Amino acid sequence: MMNYGSDGTHGRDVAGAPEGGRAARSALRAASAPGGPSAPDVPGHDPAPAVRARGLSVVRGGRTVLDALDFDVARGRVTGLLGPSGCGKTTLMRAIAGTQAHVDGALDVLDRPAGDASLRPRIGYVTQAPAVYDDLTVRQNLGYFARVLHPARTARAARREAVDRVLADTALASHADVLAGHLSGGQRSRVSLAVALLGDPELLVLDEPTVGLDPVLRRDLWALFHALAADRGVTLLVSSHVMDEAERCDQLLLMRDGRLVAADTPAALTARTGTTTVESAFLHVIAEGDTPTRPAAVDGEPRHDGAPHPEGEPHPEGERHPEGERHPEGDSRPAPRASVARTLATTTRVLRQLRHDPRTIALLLVVPSAMITLLRYVFDGTAGTGTFDPLGASLLGIFPMITMFLVTSIATLRERTSGTLERLLAMPLGKTDLISGYALAFGALAIVQSALATGLSLWALDLDVTGSPWLLLLVAVLDALLGTALGLFVSAFAASEFQAVQFMPAVLMPQLLLCGLFAPRDEMQPVLSALSDVLPMSYAVDAMNEVLRHPDVTPDFLRGLAVVTGCALLVLSLGAATLRRRTR
Ligand SMILES: Nc1ncnc2c1ncn2[C@@H]1O[C@H](COP(=O)(O)OP(=O)(O)OP(=O)(O)O)[C@@H](O)[C@H]1O
Questions:
Q1: Looking at 227-231, 283-287, 475-479, which range is the least confident one?
Q2: ipTM above 0.90, yes or no
Q3: pLDDT interval class at 289 (50, 70, 90)
Q4: How far apart are the first and last CA of the chain?
Q5: 567 FRET partner, CA 20 to 30 A, in 158, 207, 323, 526?
Q6: CA 254–ligand 1 middle distance (angstroms)
Q7: Strand order in 103-109's β-sheet?
Q8: Whose CA is nearest to atom 24 of ligand 1?
Q9: What is the spatial distance between Cα 177 and Cα 110, in angstroms, rounded to a whole number?
Q10: What is the CATH code for 14-288?
């Protein structure tokens, strides 16, 4: 049973219950925090709407999918966003959460323009598909997102408390240590909701949170929503295409074909249309072609009568943002500053995901060593010719680059397709934190992988190296970093895992053929030689060969190292640039 009011419908009587006491404490905490929610029902208090849209339009793929919407969402209430499939609910929710591109008109959320970086900790956004990590337990998922929200070391106890609170709120405590991938669809949706509840958000934007749930769970979730609004002053915008859920909302926004056809309370809507259900009211409104142009009232009273806007403004047709600016199209708002704590949280999360996948770790660690051993015995018949040494040394650098490229491109693509990337970028996580977190995790793995292969080559396979083996290891690790960077970068251009795998030959094979491994670079045709000069793998192989031949660090070794490092950093920055906070 979920942790909400006892009536099982609106949960408004929870204050007296033990959970209500905890909820009230939580509301108090949030209200006393800077920017905490306004009290919803203070007499004489007329708070500004949580969301205020005027002339809001969105174009996707050249088509207008939201057309000049005007509406308000009242604070501390549950507002339902209802309409048939494809009418634009998800697009509208994304616009409010700040993750939708090509938004025009004025859209203010919690008194800031939608998409403003300062809103990220204040909004909980639950996408339609559960955006959680299947290869982490429920508690590990919540722990990671809690660290993204509150990364300070001193916040550890508060994070643990928040995780326990949301586990109880979503009735998931008994599944806390189960992998998210082993949960049912409805349970995973609740994990996704639990993530959104972590930071005591002022506004919860929930995209079809009850789809696929049985009637008991649906009733329980609605009770939780009302308890959140009543006890903590949270504003909820909940989408659904099931009309019977409309009766459970305080306010309704009814949409059709990208337009708002009604904005009212359920009772006022049915009374105005002379119907008994919201579904028949919706059909009535459509039959009448009754499309209101006035926004819904923030105080629960319908406003379809040409009454002045609550702030005394004229009718806001075609109105622009109060500050005269258009809705921010690019992500021009100040991004959160890079945070070491969030980077390390991401590194830990990626390594934890790998820990649940021991076969991948084994393959990552063993395959390069197995390949170098195979190479050694392929050249067994040519012992004394010294062929194994240059090839072996070069491949020690090339293997980590190839494996890290593949692992990173698929891992990043998975972040994109599962929705976790959209969720993270709607939270206060810097792109650099995410990229550096990945680079550190895979860099650590690359060190182990390269150390194993290099150690094996030197001490078991008789690789004859004049210089220090540590220098070989250094080049191998930097190569792995380059592979990670390239993987992050190209994943932005792959629409599926199949495509990501195809990028491997496209990006790596030309480098492999031109790096001097198969033919000396200065003996290639001039065009190929020039091409080889601009490919980073050529410099990695040059550096490996310098270690092979010279006892000391040479200028050519340093140049090779500098080029590989520079390329890795450049491609990492390009990878960060491909992480868009907005969906097209
Ligand atoms: N990338 C895109 N390019 C062009 N049109 C798109 C794109 N994504 C969505 N659309 C269109 O935008 C419209 C609104 O889509 P949206 O997902 O917002 O609808 P919805 O009401 O949330 O639907 P559902 O209830 O099925 O989730 C749809 O007609 C859809 O076909």
A1: 283-287
A2: yes
A3: low
A4: 39
A5: 526
A6: 16
A7: 63-73, 51-60, 103-109, 112-113
A8: 85
A9: 35
A10: 3.40.50.300
